[in-house]
Amino acid sequence: MAYPFQLGLQDASSPIMEELMNFHDHTLMIVFLISSLVLYIITLMLTTKLTHTSTMDAQEVETIWTILPAVILILIALPSLRILYMMDEINDPALTVKTMGHQWYWSYEYTDYEDLSFDSYMTPTSDLKPGELRLLEVDNRVVLPMELPIRMLISSEDVLHSWAVPSLGIKTDAIPGRLNQATISSNRPGLFYGQCSEICGSNHSFMPIVLEMVPLKNFEDWSLSMI
Known about the structure:
Elements lengths: L14 H33 L11 H30 L6 E8 L2 E6 L6 E4 L21 E4 L4 E7 L4 E5 L4 E5 L5 E5 L5 E7 L11 E7 L1 H11 L1
Parallel strand pairs: 1-5, 4-10
Antiparallel strand pairs: 1-2, 2-3, 5-8, 6-7, 6-9, 9-10
Helix pairs in contact: 1-2
Keywords: Copper, Electron transport, Magnesium, Membrane, Metal-binding, Mitochondrion, Mitochondrion inner membrane, Respiratory chain, Translocase, Transmembrane, Transmembrane helix, Transport
Subcellular location: Mitochondrion inner membrane
Cofactor: Cu cation
C-alpha cells in the first residue's frame, strides 16, 4: 500500500502491474527527453543572436520534425497496446469471484462454490484493532489464492462504482446492468488495499477493498470454514 509522502507508484504485486510500471518509466523517459530538447532550443533561441538563413526554409528540417514525432508515438503505442491486450486476456481462470457495488459497501460471491458469499463493510474507527488502518480496514476480507489467475466479475446494484486495487494493477468500473470482467494474480502473499474510485455518493470515501492473498492450502482451509 501507499506510504506518507510517496511520490511514485505502489510496489507491483502482479505481472500486469509490473508491466504498467515499466511502461510508465518508458513513457516518462521519452517525455523527459522531449522536454529537455524543447527547453534547450528555447534557451538557445533566447540567448544567441546568430541565425542560419538556410534553416529558415529547409525541406530536410521539416521532414525530420514531421517523421520524428510519428516515430515517438509508435514507440509509445506498441508497448501500450501489448499491455492492453494482456489486461483483457483471461486464460483458464482457477477461480471466479463476482463483485457487486452498493451504496456504500461491496458484496462478494465465489461462484465456484455452492454457498460462499458475504458483504464487506468498512470497519468503524472505534472498532479498529492495533495495527489496522483507518478508512481501509473491512469486516470481511476477500481471501484469494496467490500465483493463480482469478477472474473478477464486477457490477453494481445502484449507481456507478469502481473496483480498484492499485498494487495489483486493476481498476474496473462497476456499472448497473453490465458485467465487467478483469483478471488478477498476485506474485506474493499479503494484504492489498483499494477503494472505490468512482464518486458514488456521500459515503464514497468509505468503501474500502481488502484482498488477502494466501497460499492455495490456506485458501482451501478458509473456504471450507466459510461454507
